[in-house]
Specification:
seven-stranded mixed β-sheet, Rossmann fold, binds S-adenosylmethionine, about 45% helix, about 25% strand, alpha/beta
Length: about 230
C-alpha cells in the first residue's frame, strides 16, 4: 500500500471533496441511502459506530442524523479530511469522535455495533483487506453489522476493463477530467472483486455476508457478527 501517496492525495482532495465525489462515483448518494436502509437498528438505538476512512464525514453525518443516540468515531489518516469533517459535523460534536490513523496499522477501538466504510478499503492489497476484515470482526459486538461501499473489480479481467471504460464515460459525461482520475486510480487503488471480498468476510467470521448492490465496478456489501 502506498500510504504516503494516498494520504497526500486526500490531504489535497479534502477541500472540494463533497462537491466533486458524486461526479466521480456513479449513484454515490443512492449508495448511502441504501446503506442507511440496511442498518437494522431502531432509530433510538444507542449504538457505537465506526466510520472507517470517514473522509469529510458524509456517512457519519447521515448516521448521526438518523440515529440521535448513536456515537460515531470518524477514523481517517488525512488531517485535512478530519478538519473538514469536524466543521461539517459541528452540530453533532458531542456524539462524534475524530481519530487520525492508518486503519491497516493503527488501533481503531472496539465494541462497535455498526461499522461503515466508504471508498477506502480498496487502498489495501488483498492480504491487507483480509487482515482488516479479521481486525474489524474482533472490534465489533455480537449483533453488529458491517457495511462497505467500495470500488471493486469485475469477476474477470475483461469485465473489469469494460466497467472501467464505462466508469470513465460517467466521469467525462459529468464534466470531469476522466484521464487524470483514471491515472490516479491506476497508480494508487488496489480493488478486489466482490466475490473475493465476500469470501474473505466469511473467512473472518462474518455471517449474512452478501453483496447488496452493484453497478459496474462499484458495490455495497458486508456482513453481520452473530
Ligand atoms: C474517497 S475518501 C471516502 C470518504 C467517505 N468515506 C465516502 O464514502 O465518500 C477515502 C478516505 O479514506 C481515507 N483512507 C484511505 N486509506 C486509509 C487508511 N489506510 N487509513 C485511514 N484512512 C484511509 C482517505 O484519507 C480518505 O479520506
Amino acid at each position: 500500500m502506498k500510504v504516503d501517496a494516498v494520504r497526500a492525495r486526500f490531504e489535497q482532495a479534502a477541500f472540494d471533496y463533497d462537491g466533486l465525489i458524486p461526479r466521480l462515483i456513479p449513484y454515490y448518494r443512492e449508495q448511502q441511502d441504501l446503506i442507511l436502509q440496511l442498518i437494522p437498528f431502531g432509530s433510538n438505538a444507542n449504538i457505537k459506530v465506526l466510520d472507517l476512512g470517514a473522509g469529510t464525514g458524509i456517512l457519519s453525518a447521515l448516521i448521526l442524523q438518523a440515529f440521535p443516540q448513536a456515537n460515531v468515531t470518524a477514523f481517517d489518516m488525512a488531517e485535512n479530511m478530519l478538519k473538514i469533517c469536524q466543521t461539517n459535523l459541528s452540530a453533532f460534536r458531542e456524539r462524534l469522535t475524530l481519530q487520525q490513523g492508518n486503519f491497516a496499522a493503527d488501533d481503531f477501538g472496539s465494541g462497535y455495533d455498526l461499522v461503515v466504510s466508504g471508498l477506502a478499503i480498496h487502498h489495501l492489497e488483498g492480504a491487507g483487506k483480509q487482515q482488516l476484515f479479521h481486525k474489524l470482526f474482533a472490534a465489533m459486538n455480537s449483533g453488529g453489522i458491517l457495511l462497505i461501499r467500495d470500488i471493486v473489480t469485475g469477476a474477470t479481467p475483461s469485465l473489469t476493463e469494460q466497467y472501467e471504460q464505462l466508469w470513465r464515460k460517467y466521469m467525462k459525461d459529468c464534466g470531469e477530467d476522466d484521464a487524470t482520475y483514471f491515472q490516479a486510480y491506476l497508480e494508487e487503488d488496489i480493488p478486489s472483486s466482490v466475490e473475493e471480498q465476500t469470501q474473505w468476510l466469511a473467512e473472518a467470521g462474518f455471517s449474512e455476508v452478501g453483496c447488496h448492490w452493484r453497478y459496474l465496478n462499484f458495490a455495497v456489501f458486508g456482513g453481520a457478527k452473530k
